[in-house]
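quick one before i forget lol
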Amino acid sequence: MLFWLKKALTLPFLPLSFALFTGALGSALLWTKRQKLGRALVTVSVLSLAIFSNKGIASLLISPLETRYAPIPEARTATNLPATIAACQTIVILGGGHSDTNELSRVNQLSTSALSRLAEGVRLAHLIPSAKLIVSGYNGPKRLPHAQILAEAAMSLGIAPERIIRFDETRDTDDEAQELARCLGPEPFLLVTSAWHMPRSMALCEKAGLQPIPAPADFKQRPGEQNAANSFLTWDLGALENSTKAIHERLGFFWAYLRSRT
């Protein structure tokens, strides 16, 4: 129940949903005696889309999330990794969504975020061959769990089945943190998720008494791209997506705070 309540309360505050709602309401009011309010709402709708689809604004919103934790560097063997990372015996990949189109391979069914998270997790699993790989994600009744899709994709990329543990029933990051607390306790582990999602994931895991070591993936901005002056002269759908992710994460932080999860 709380899962769906969170979804319902979050949706109106996301940029595209907010713009569509205010634009539709404003357009409807233009046909009534409240035309002044209608024009104001239409203006707010257009301005909100212009603001959040601006590349510079999107960068200002998402950069503080993505730069909180450094990525794990390139390495040929575990001996090239920092000792705390090389010693980890568990790699956790948080779910990121997939398509139910069975005509595609498991790898190609994964969303962009899930694929990037999986690639980083598999990279680390090859570097630390003794480590287990935990994959996570629910997908609703009568559908294959997201964890299963991730597991089968990982196997197609060379990970042995006996190394993989699935969490098939976790719906969101809070569920994942609670399940990890039951399974791992205080054992340190590598936490793989999108860079923009990592701060909230770390906070939820640490509140649950876990010891995660961040392994961010799925960066929406590369070094040197942040806050470039000409970015404020560019508008595109990618920027709108990045703004949406950044706002969604902050709303998630607020929801977790209300539930005393962070």
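fyi The mean pLDDT is 93.
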